[in-house]
Amino acid sequence: MQTELWITKIFNNYLAGLGNWCLGLVGIHAQPRPWANYVTMQLLVTLIIIVLFAALKPRMSVDNPGKLQHAFEIIYEFVHGESKDQVGHEGPRYLAFFGTIFIFVLFANLIGIIPGFESPTMFPPVPLGCAMAVFLYYNLVGVQANGIFRYLAKFLGPMIWIAPLVVVIEIISHLARVLSLTVRLFANMYAGEQVLMVFLSLTYFAVPALFMALHVFVSLLQAYIFMLLAMMYVAGAVAEEH
Fold first, then answer.
1. Angle at CA of residue 54, ends 49 and 60, nearest 5°
2. Which of the four, 30, 34, 58, 210, has the lowest number of CB atoms within 10 Å?
3. The model's pTM
């Protein structure tokens, strides 16, 4: 049975009613302790991001930028450049989504390094939610860029006589993207977390520090791959057929 984090205990002790109300919205019966670790950790990550940007905004300066501004300018330039490379000159148009998904996944991956917390991305529902957001977004911008009929025509293939087969293949292919994004992020973060916990339980010296550094690297890499795949899916959705 999963150990309840201290923050989850607070939610279950004082906000169980709110949790059961949320569960009722999706047809799930009330539970004595409705809050799960990955839900509270997601809320915490979201709160951290909101507070961080709220603190950064009034401190932004052209003449005397601080270290935090420099850090986020590097992230911005990186995401901006990748969006142009993967999507084309229209890539920066979708920068808000790419930046949001990158920062959320990155913070959700890294928060597990802090004692007393867990990475919510090592639980399947969280990567699945992010994957569904990518799926809905690239289909939405595809329709916006091409129109509903031209976008749906991409699912028919180049020749009408093989359209029924191509439609089935395309649908399976697009649904597989959700599964691929989910499994890749979940599996890597879960494995990294388990390896880190094993070595932390054995010793508290240099070896755990090396695996913590590896965990940071994996967290950065997985956030980048998740964003990169989202960019590739958007690029395919908004591309015009010739």
1. 115
2. 58
3. 0.91
